[in-house]
Amino acid sequence: MKYLLNRILSFLKTLQSKIAFYPSLFAILGFLLAFTMMYLEKRGVSKYLMDSFPSLVVNNGDTALTILSACITGLISMMVFSFSMVMVLLNQASTNYSPRLLPGLISDKRHQIILGTYLATILYCIFIAVSIQPSGEKYQVPGFAVLIGIIFTVICIWAFIYFIHNISQSIQINNILDGIYHTAKKRLNKLIESEKTEAEFPSTDNWIVYNTKKSGYFQNVSLNYLVDICEQHDTQLEIIPVKGIFVLEDTPVFRCRKELEESTVDQILSNFIFSRGELVEDNYVLAFKQITEIIVKAMSPGINDPGTALNGIDYLTELFGLRMQKNDESYIIRDNSAYLKLSAVSFDELLYNVMASIRTYCKHDIILVQKLGEMLIYLNNKPAQSDSYHNSVIEAAETLFNDAGRELINKTDRKVLEAYGEKFNLKLQIS
């Protein structure tokens, strides 16, 4: 039962990130509502309203058809325009910033719900229009259903205004960076909170290794179900791959303290969620990648936008400061017992990969080098979970200033670099 539930939850989580999920769901609701209103019309709901509130009910078939036709035509135009705006947003984000931003923008529930509202109203109005008999008696016109269609159309107009406002905000790089930052911050805080309990975990060098039966990006894993399996079989597991990496078929994915039956192995593997895309909600490291790619693209010769690069470094500074409060190794604990060991990208590796990408395009710009220097000074003075974190920061600073020194030949710029080097007690090789 848990296996089936886990598969369903995994499928729904993947499905929710698709741009057509909520529009399709709302379309089904609009279809069902139309037939519900047809049933109520047969029960005489319009006749009752016509007697009680005649001003609210359309009692002429031609008028009702005209109103519904106008609503359908207008809503289709709005929906086409809205979809076009979404495509423009995705194209601009991919071209100017980073293709990695697309999964997060596509999964924006606000856009999906608005588009779904349009689609549901269009389908509702179409089926209500089909049910109208213009030549019949007054009560045969679904007046109440037409009134509901008019109300839904007004709601769609309000949603369209909100959509224009929201899309104009979403396309701005400051809001994109802010959204990435807050999502990653929320994820990091959750991980840091879960590490407050100390855990003892044995060495896994001699444990039995099990391989995956599928390939894809390792997106997430159902930790609660794995802990349940560990309790049931009195064992412990180590998750080998790091979230976000591409796992090839028949490569190691977990180690176990004892040998397991094939059915149990299949049950454990079912809790690993693979996909062809990534989301920051599941993997905070992706936020570092996205912001780094935005900085690199902003400093490329084709775009040359140092202001965006400076903003990106500010967000990286805060995220790195938060990452320094997290251990490189994570454990899942239940009832004071550690059952799972999770692999994670170390702080040293994360900082090196980010700085290596940025140095290529920023080492020739003294303003950006200064900004990166301020970031490294801030990190070096910030308390950390391990002293090795500060050693990584000093090493990154030495590499940055030496590379910049080879690019910058102006004496004033070199003095600035030497001043930053003194703050780290470094003797730079830039002469």
TrEMBL record:
KW Glycoprotein (keyword) present: no
Transmembrane segments: 20-40, 64-90, 111-132, 144-164
Provenance organism: Salegentibacter chungangensis
Keywords: Membrane, Transmembrane, Transmembrane helix
Name of the protein: DUF2254 domain-containing protein
